[in-house]
Amino acid sequence: MISNAPYGVEPWCLTESHLDLNLIAQSESVFALSNGHIGLRGNLDEGDPHGLPGTYLNSLFEDRPLPYAEAGYGFPEMGQTVINVTNGKIIRLLVNDEPFDIRYGTVQSHTRTLDLRGGTLTRNVVWTSPAGHTVDIQSVRLVSLTQRAVAAISYRVKPVDETLRLVLMSELVANEEVPRQSADPRAAAILSKPLTGEEHYAVDGDNPRAVLVHGTESSKLRLAAGMSHAIHGPAKMSTSTESFDDMARLLVAAEVAPEEELSLIKYLGYGWSSQRTRPALIDQVVGAIAAAKLTGWDGLLAEQRQFLDEFWEGADVEVDGDVEIQQAVRFGLFHIIQAGARTENRPIPAKGLTGTGYDGHTFWDTETFVLPVLTYTWPEAAADALRWRYAVMDKAKSHAVELGLDGAAFPWRTIRGQECSGYWPAGTAAFHINADIANAVTKYLDATQDEKFEREIGLPLLVETARLWRSLGQHDSHGKFRIEGVTGPDEYSAVKDNNLYTNLMAQHNLAAAAELVEKLDKEARELDVTAEEAASWRDAANDMYIPYDHHLKVHPQHDGFTSYARWDFKATPEDHYPLLLHYPYFQLYRKQVVKQADVVLAMQLRPSSFTDEQKRRNFDYYEAITVRDSSLSPCTQAVIAAEVGHLDLAYDYLAEAALMDLQDREHNTKDGVHIASLAGAWTALVGGFGGMRAPSSGALAFSPKLPPGIICLSFRMRYRGRIVQVKIHDHGVDYLLLAGDPLEITHHGEPLTITGEPQTLEIPPAHPLPPPSQPFGRVPQSRHGRE
Amino acid sequence: MISNAPYGVEPWCLTESHLDLNLIAQSESVFALSNGHIGLRGNLDEGDPHGLPGTYLNSLFEDRPLPYAEAGYGFPEMGQTVINVTNGKIIRLLVNDEPFDIRYGTVQSHTRTLDLRGGTLTRNVVWTSPAGHTVDIQSVRLVSLTQRAVAAISYRVKPVDETLRLVLMSELVANEEVPRQSADPRAAAILSKPLTGEEHYAVDGDNPRAVLVHGTESSKLRLAAGMSHAIHGPAKMSTSTESFDDMARLLVAAEVAPEEELSLIKYLGYGWSSQRTRPALIDQVVGAIAAAKLTGWDGLLAEQRQFLDEFWEGADVEVDGDVEIQQAVRFGLFHIIQAGARTENRPIPAKGLTGTGYDGHTFWDTETFVLPVLTYTWPEAAADALRWRYAVMDKAKSHAVELGLDGAAFPWRTIRGQECSGYWPAGTAAFHINADIANAVTKYLDATQDEKFEREIGLPLLVETARLWRSLGQHDSHGKFRIEGVTGPDEYSAVKDNNLYTNLMAQHNLAAAAELVEKLDKEARELDVTAEEAASWRDAANDMYIPYDHHLKVHPQHDGFTSYARWDFKATPEDHYPLLLHYPYFQLYRKQVVKQADVVLAMQLRPSSFTDEQKRRNFDYYEAITVRDSSLSPCTQAVIAAEVGHLDLAYDYLAEAALMDLQDREHNTKDGVHIASLAGAWTALVGGFGGMRAPSSGALAFSPKLPPGIICLSFRMRYRGRIVQVKIHDHGVDYLLLAGDPLEITHHGEPLTITGEPQTLEIPPAHPLPPPSQPFGRVPQSRHGRE
């Protein structure tokens, strides 16, 4: 646990100035680099010590059996788990005859800096060996956002006071020993020795390089990793290269005087395939490295900077008055663009490529929490992630058939598209993921008006998910359309009837599919959609049953929920959270206790389905029973707290979401960062204090307001080819178009056309509300009490 | 599957006159012998061929890990499974140099007869070896109902035409190879080599004998098996005895002339313990054998007969007009008394000791289906089974604590008292087992007025289960007492709110506990029951919420059930039953489809909670959606069908329950007989056509009526020290007291005192009702169409 953030507060970078071995696993996640295809945990160059060595390639997984004490029909028997692939990060150093290892000798100074604009991780360390020899080391690492298969490291070592015999060993290592993880079911299962060597070679000379090729046993995937070097050093220097099944090594030995330095640039190439031959795969990697060398180290740095400049141009958020949040929201956006930049038909996992948490699986988090951010900041990445859903639709259709349903039933958790959930009440039963995908599609279409995507990807995704809902629900004898036995976002309720969130999201899915089919009637006919079928979706949407408790005047989370006994929060010790690790599901499911926003999330995503009064009442009701045992919850609570007028509370929840990883609020950042929660920081700011909503029809809406403590909030977003800037301060709101044609929006419900000329509008006066209460012991940390 | 019963129809025995190797596993279950402590499957004496070799000792189990693809808090990590112990049944024969094996040579004749009055299994076979030598063999086997640790076999072989060299090998064999069972989750997990040899010895001489002692590795139990022999043969005969870790063998070699025979009596003794030392355990077995030898073979036969005569005196059921049912009901009662006779603080498993089905576990079947029969036929056995529940109450209390509840939460499935269910929605969530135990207690107390049991066993069982219910349920804002998130008898619904059966049974449990606490106030105080606590039970019982659908005028099985879509029975192929093996739980739980009687069982066990009209409407409603995928269902449907007036249908269901094993209706008799379904045949006759009910207050009630086809039904039952005989025929009903003082009863609601003088009363005229319909394809086999 990082009790106090060990990272200095700076607006555009994250700096660690002291290496705490107790926090090493967390810092590996926080300092991870990725481009969505390759992921490198922030392990030290020399490999040891580590929390969890980690090098990942998106979707490169191994099967793992899913056992059951009592099996049931259709329980998936095989799961998928991300594996630690060939580690190309390793550069070991010998100082005279002593290995550089920060656990021995003396660290004179240490800094690591993640540069959010440069896209690099820089490490500076001055170390004195046990025998008293001092070296000054700098390494800079990047995973290229422009050259998908490439990572690179610049490594430089200088003797401080004396001539030293230095040996660098730059390596590729497969099948690293991986520590056994905790018994927490949320941590990943570990596979020891997941890779089988297929080929290896090393080439000496001016361009010392090596390639290792490995395969996975059960999933039958093949990967190649290659390295190539440019070395600079003193005259007295020798190099050699060698390779083995699980290791390749470049050795550089040199006698280096104090005024001299020994340095190398290491170019890494990675590739994997389920189909390509070994030679083809090797060529792919060798080619990628050749291209990277042509670009050169400085060229890679420049490309990285250019890519990120373009990203920040339409994505930056400025927070004046809270430097921690300022840093955190940029840190979050950086990890999100890292996770999504180059996925290209592959998923964005819950932890990105920063750790093995949740087995490297992708959940609804992507569509519901991450894609909204990408849609408004880097829409190509959102499109890519949805193209992956389309790419695995055949498996979702087979899954639907297995379940006795029509259309496509997307998996609750997966890497390659197959359902991998081993506990169906909190897995397969969470059908809302299908409507979440549909919602991400409609939001993307609204934000981009991408007609090619609409025809090719959007239409089939909407059609097949609508078919699913039509077969999952049924009309009752009163003509209402009901959906029984499903699990909503709140996993402390499972397999319930008419989950409000699910019904509302399904309603949107059905209606949106019917609408798009009307627009694209030719393409729809190719998907065998008839007018009758589309009408049946429209009918189901119109007839959707929306549970409402007329006595309490709130929406029950599902049928009967408001009659349940409340959880006994007073009797629940603080260390018994998260509850699922300390109480049986049986008790959680039958009580009024909410793990994460459910009705409240419905109010964010389907705002027009609730009156203002209902939003206020529902928020207060669920606030009192929501324990936030999921990192997905606080950002949603922040958005609705802001909407209904609890601005201080919204601020507290914003901080909880934003600082999730920087302060390790859930004690599991070591397994990877919480991509969705990081996205939630943006959502809390833009959707919460910015009040940004993109209604199904009508103009983009803003209802800005600021909590005490934030002096000015300014954010940029991309929308239909424009870049919009909204700047909220205590005198009002400045709207400005940074790029593109004038745009119709609404400001607190009033129409407004924004242009390249700044316009300042007033914020309507707030009506103070009595603050709602949280469960005993679950009051969020106050943002005002932070000094 | 036994498509046509291979057993001849005889009133007092079951005879197999042809050995079909395809049916060998089923016949091993059907011909199993047991006394509730020792169980011997009907394996052939010579061991080969077999379906499943089986020798069991009640509660001798091994642990087995329960794995989970995704673990959850409190999921049991270790289960228990019955193991095949040292096999003492084996007597192999060599005819000249050829082993007697019915798969080779020619079986000239074969019969096996289970004698329901004698308590023996007799086999007669005349076999000609491949080389043409013919022998005539008879074996008679018994498991003593009077000497708990003893089984015995009389084995006799005669050459038919010529002098033959015969060798008998009488053995004890541990760790027999056991065939791998099917993937059906209901079949038992198999453990290979579950026993570790601890000691063995063999003694030659006049009294050749041997003992093997083994232990189990994980459950740390120890067992001893011993054998001793009395041998009769020709002058030229030699014997020897030897023993090894996993085997002991008596060899008898003799030259036998045609007019001579070679015979032996094999006395078997078994004992096991978790505590006793090895010498003590050996002495226990040796002593048991010595006592049995003193009694002698003829003595054991006589004791067996005497025990059963006494049983049948108060238990026999005569069915005139249907010889199959006549045989089946006696066969069922025989297996029930075998399962329950000598359990003595051990449970009665779902399969008795006849196979490894359900891992040898005990469920609610015992209390709900088996104990009612024993209560009215051999009440000591019912008391024993409930004493076992009391004996494991410490584990049930710990389980309640784990679940966050008060009192005792008895396990859904267990051998030794620990919860062993690996899928909690159809395991731990089935809390009704606690009320089922309480109901068995109150029925036993009503039937026996056993005050010692009431004080020592009944009171604590009722108190701790009442405490469970009080903590499991809660008062809602309207003052109703609700029980959420539990699973009722119907396992095609799980984790539902206010299951009608559960609420009604809990109501009875709470009220009965409060009443008994009032009577036994001193003993109750020792259990820390205060007047306030008892009052809170009474309140909860009075306030119990009983769901009712005013629109349909039926009781929903649970909240919301009647709004669910009906299962699409027309689209369900015949070979897709049982549904749980062909459809996901997710679909089963959300549709109106019932695996087994649930509301209908509530109407049987809590008759006064329903009006006659409600019973009729409920029965018809649930009949249309009940698929009878559980062997526990038809007997209950028979009882209520008879009560509401569907006599033909009741007859059909009676037959389905009664012939479950003799006709292998569920294709799994090979794993053991269905003790509860066999009990259901008695219940269908006595509770159905006899209309017998024992109300919570008031006199024992009968409402006899007969279906067309049964000419006369006569049954005997024990009640408060009496033996009552009820004889139903087409002229009326004859009531007669066979033993004890006059008894107040009711006949179709009218009071009557029955005495030693027969009294004949009229059966009120029936009002014909339109027959209800069953799900498509699930109409029961008509009993009228059987010719």
UniProtKB/TrEMBL annotation, chains A, B:
Residues 765-774 have a biased composition (Pro residues). Residues 330-683 form the Glycoside hydrolase family 65 central catalytic domain. This is Glycoside hydrolase family 65 protein. It comes from the Bacteria. Residues 749-787 are annotated as: Disordered. Gene3D superfamilies: 1.50.10.10, Glycoside hydrolase, family 65, N-terminal domain, Maltose phosphorylase, domain 3. GO terms for molecular function: carbohydrate binding; glycosyltransferase activity; hydrolase activity, hydrolyzing O-glycosyl compounds. Residues 694-753 form the Glycoside hydrolase family 65 C-terminal domain. InterPro entries: 6-hairpin_glycosidase_sf (IPR008928), 6hp_glycosidase-like_sf (IPR012341), Gal_mutarotase_sf_dom (IPR011013), GH65_N (IPR037018), Glyco_hydro_65_C (IPR005194), Glyco_hydro_65_M (IPR005195), Glyco_hydro_65_N (IPR005196), Malt_Pase/Glycosyl_Hdrlase (IPR017045). Substrate binds at residues 364-365, 595-596. Keywords: Glycosidase, Hydrolase. One of its GO terms (biological process) is carbohydrate metabolic process. Belongs to the glycosyl hydrolase 65 family. The active site is at residue 491. Residues 15-273 form the Glycoside hydrolase family 65 N-terminal domain.
